[in-house]
Amino acid sequence: MSKTPTNPSIITRDVDKIAAKTGNVYESISIVGQRARQISSKMKEELSGKLSEFASTVDNLEEIFENREQIEISKYYERMPKPSALAIDDFLADKIDFRNREEGTTEN
Length: 108
What we know:
mainly alpha
């Protein structure tokens, strides 16, 4: 029987730890989702900025070399942890400030 290697980016999370921060798992997931969108937007801006340096309207032999650089940059971003994983890590490490709209208090 061959053993299939597991994906190291897959991490089992303790739902109770996530829910303990707010007292409600759905509220915690909502906060994590908002943070993931912020991270994703920032990463997309960075990638677009780096790839825009290679934008050209002229077709020539140098384009092949530039495409290689573009591919390497794209591969680097593909290998990075997903925004949702980064957001969960931030949430569990108390790096996200959030507040309850009804109460208006800030919590960690």
